[in-house]
Amino acid sequence: MIALRVIARLLDYPDQALFDHRQELLEALESVSELNLQHSARLMQFISGLCARPLLDRQAEYGELFDRGRATSLLLFEHVHGESRDRGQAMVDLLDQYRADGLELDAKELPDFLPLYLEYLAHGSDERARTGLQDILPILALLKARLEQRDNHYAQLFATLISLSGSEVEQASLQTQIAREARDDTPQALDAVWEEEQVTFLGEQGCASAQQTAHQRRFAAAVAPQYLDVAQATTRGTRS
């Protein structure tokens, strides 16, 4: 599905290449058959709006939205397993699934990073893509609801993913759940988390970006030690 590849790119960390090639993304959306006119128009609007502001502003916004707290994390298993060791095994299983379908990861992103998972689905059949989206539908719906609560434009992307899954979502119960949740991205909430965990990973990070550091800390807390080398060697990073 071309639409999945476009959305995967839009959900990844914004960089200069995205801004430089935005016209190609717009042109790709003009030819997609899997989207109705409404969703196609909304994606085009999202791309135009995203690239209308300075890149550094968009990068800062992305980090604030997806890397502060866990409520809007794009790491799928964080919503399923949290920081338990079960998440490590789940990531190893997902890596095996990628390899079985001919996808070998070669860099530093975690296998449960949503844009990476969408890229994987986009390279299969439409049926596999829909099934893969249905597998994570509760997470997509939860992220959409949380982003809507924050009145954030990224919610549009999740609405389109839900539409592509071909499944319905019960919105009323989600809205009730979201209304009861406390924000976990405030300075106070973040301080409380770090005081509890006190996680260190691979010593000093040097010049590593805050984006990478956040992922590494989460990985260290979640992955069983026996899987650490495997994940380091095979996970893929799509950001420059």
From TrEMBL:
The keyword Transcription regulation does not apply. SUPFAM superfamilies: TorD-like (SSF89155). GO terms for molecular function: metallochaperone activity; unfolded protein binding. One of its GO terms (biological process) is chaperone-mediated protein complex assembly. Keywords: Nitrate assimilation. The keyword Ribonucleoprotein does not apply. It comes from the Bacteria. This is Nitrate reductase molybdenum cofactor assembly chaperone. The gene is narJ.
